[in-house]
């Protein structure tokens, strides 16, 4: 069952996907988009900044839940990495403009300091979780002799950026007629292999 709070989150996500902008969003507009009363928004959130901050945290946690799935013990490195890249493409489509907003500071620049700090802490926590996940994934490649050795934190961070930038490029730079998901996933995969070999 969808709660009113989820309804508010979904309304803002829909707004981000369509418009990509949050600067001029008001509590009244959020209530209208969510099809709830303005008072209902204030039952859950104290300000527009809190609504936006909590929505972004909700999105980031959803992305992690949908892309950092448990790695089965006998799965091949190529299979699990490709599955992860596919999942990243899927969530990038689901949350159409969130990657651009995060990359360009389009969210935190609009927030009060306390919410900016809360969002920054969540991003740091998620980056660590993502780096740990990639390290586990890469260790499978090492066991299979596809990758020479577990890279340092810097290279693991670069691998994550290759995946995220490759996904963002696919949806925001590549013309619709030039898109081939399978080819693009393979291109991201091969770039990672070249970097780590």
Word description of this protein:
It is a single chain. The chain has helices spanning 4-19, 27-34, 38-44, 48-67, 77-94, 98-103, 113-143, 153-172, 181-196. It is an all-alpha fold and 197 residues long. The protein has one domain (48-196): Tetracycline Repressor, domain 2 (Orthogonal Bundle). Helix 1 (4-19) packs across helix 4 and helix 4 runs parallel beside helix 7. The longest helix is centred in the middle third of the chain and has 31 residues, at 113-143. The radius of gyration is 19 Å and the shape is elongated.
Keywords:
197 residues; Tetracycline Repressor, domain 2; 0% strand; mainly alpha
What global shape is seen?
A: elongated
Instruction: Name the beta content range.
Output: under 5%
Low-confidence stretches: none
Structural class: mainly alpha
Q: Into which percent range does the helicity of residues fall?
A: over 70%
- The termini sit apart by 48 Å
What is the second-level CATH architecture?
Orthogonal Bundle
In total, the number of domains comes to 1
